[in-house]
Amino acid sequence: MKQSAGAVLLLLCLSSACxxxxxxxxxxxxxxxVDIFVMSKCPDALFAExxxxxxxxxxxxxxxxxxxxxxxxxxxxxFSCKHGPTECAGNLQQLCVQLHSKWYQRYDxxxxxxxxxxxxxxxxxxxxxxxASCLKEIGMPVAAGTKMMGCMYGPGHxxxxxxxxxxxxxxxxxxxxxxxxxxxxxxxxxxxxWKDCPAGYQPENFKEIFCATIASKNRGRLPKAxxxxxxxxxxxx
Length: 237
Prior knowledge:
By secondary structure, this protein is of the alpha+beta class. It has 8 helices and 7 strands.
């Protein structure tokens, strides 16, 4: 049976020579960078974000989740948004939540905010009402939420998004959604299909890749979520 590259590496790192039971709540752990490049109103982005959600939640203590936004470069060097001004607004809302979230808050603050906006429907993404209601729904602390709203609607917000889209373009990423791990593209969702996913595109494939990368960066140490389940003994008859 053919196995994915992620699965093979993970199996190697589950050997006694590689595995340890280190805690992943200390500052000595090298976390894995997961970069997700999207347009906030792109159907492929919404699909990919949903597919990644359970794995990102399970491994959130070992990952640094980063959202990046894709624009269309204009003749004057600025960037516009493919799905219109409200997509730019949605991009900015998600960017501002990210900018005011520390790495360990990225799933519970940033990613839950993104999923909440997506749940409202594409037409609702980017509106003030959606941003405010989603901050409330995910239980955002008032002080942090106030900073995020100030970022979204205060002075300089356009420049923040322009810089982020410029950075994305400089990396050569133009397809929403593109998923990278430590700077390497592992999968792309485009035109309603998964593409360029050599290790697979199911949630378990993403988990294999994340766990293998965590192990390789931490001398084989793995979080509990990456360890193989211990079989339950069958009761004697």
